[in-house]
Structure formats: C-alpha cells, structure tokens
Amino acid sequence: MREFLDSPKTPEGAIPDELRDWLARDHDAVPVASPSEASELRCDARLVERLTTLAGPLRARRVFVAGCPVVHHPSGPPIAAAFHGQLLVRDNPPGVLASRALMSGWVLVDPWPPDVGFARGTDLLRQALARAFAAVAVAVAE
Q1: Residue 68's closest CA among 43, 85, 86?
Q2: pLDDT score for 100
Q3: Angle formed by the axes of helices 45-55 and 121-141, nearest 10°
Q4: Cα(122)–Cα(45) distance, rounded to whole angstroms?
Q5: I need a labelling partner for 122 at 20 to 30 A (CA). Which of 25, 81, 113, 131 fits?
Q6: What are the distances in angstroms from CA 68 to CA 28, 40, 43, 56, 84?
Q7: What is the dihedral of CA 55, 57, 62, 68, to 10 degrees?
Q8: What are phi and psi of 119, to 5 degrees?
Q9: What is residue 133's three-state secondary structure?
Q10: What is the pLDDT of residue 104?
Q11: What is the distance between the alpha carbons of residues 14 and 54, in angstroms, rounded to a whole number?
Q12: 100 and 108 Cβ atoms separated by less than 8 Å
C-alpha cells in the first residue's frame, strides 16, 4: 500500500479539533462558510481540487472548516472532508481504498488510490462518496 500524499499514517488525534467537532455535529442545513485563503489551508491545494472534483457530480456543497474542505449533502450532513494529505469519507467505503476507521462513522481513505483489477481507483473513490451521499439522503428521508 502506498503512503498517502505528503503524510505519514495519521493517528486519530491529528484531525484538527474544530474539524473533528464539525464532523461529529448534526447539521440540519448546509452551513454557510466563506472559502479559506490558500495560506489558511491545512491540506494540499491539489487535494482540495480532488475532493471538489470527486463530489462535483453529487451536487454537494463545499465549505472550509479550520482550513480543511468539507463536502456536505444538500440537506446538511457532511459526507467527506480532507486534511493534510488525507481524505475522510462517511460510512463504509470499499476496503480496497486502503481504508481504516479513524473516528466514529468516518473512515480514512487514500485520496489517490491505485487501480484495482478492472476498476480505476478514482472510480472506486467516486462511488464511495456517492454511497455516503445516498446514505445521508435515506437517513434524511426517514
């Protein structure tokens, strides 16, 4: 397994406290936050672009929390976030994405996974975000 971009394996405590609190909180509506300046980012600008591109087809909303991009379902709950060189996805992405549980309900995945079998790693990651998005939609409808 290749290491995540510019980062060693991240211990749970490495998630900025403000981001951890944000992800653990209930959100009834998409939060409004102004974009961070590049100097305030806590992750590589390429990772911000990567997360934005992966979530684009979902029509999800992006906000920045403690300099980290967070993607939210239109009804409010967050589905993915990036910090340093790593990506957090809500719920349970496929194990081939080199995932590991990092905090309750959130799994750390490689933002640039290798291709696996006949599936491109990027497609698997996009599907993981789509599953998290769908799970939030179902939970909101209930």
Answers
A1: 43
A2: 75
A3: 60
A4: 18
A5: 25
A6: 20, 9, 6, 17, 8
A7: 20
A8: -100, 130
A9: helix
A10: 81
A11: 24
A12: yes
Is pLDDT of 72 > 50? yes
Is residue 41 within 8 Å of 67, Cβ to Cβ?
yes
Distances (CA, A) of 37 to 59, 69, 80, 85, 131: 23, 12, 20, 18, 30
User: Beta-strand (E) ranges in 9-141?
Assistant: 61-65, 68-72, 78-83, 86-90, 100-103, 106-109
Predicted confidence (pLDDT) at residue 29 exceeds the cutoff of 50: yes
Residues in contact with 116: Cβ distance below 8 Å, sequence separation at least 6, in sequence order:
96, 124
Q: Looking up tokens 């390429």, which residue turns up?
A: 46
Beta bridge partners of 81: 70, 88
Which two tokens mark 110? 């490689």
Give the burial string for 90-124 (b: 16+ CB within 10 Å, else e): beebbebbbbeebeeebbbbbbbbeeeeeeebeeb
- Given a cut of 80, whether residue 126 has pLDDT beyond it is yes
Helix (H) and strand (E) counts for the chain?
3, 6
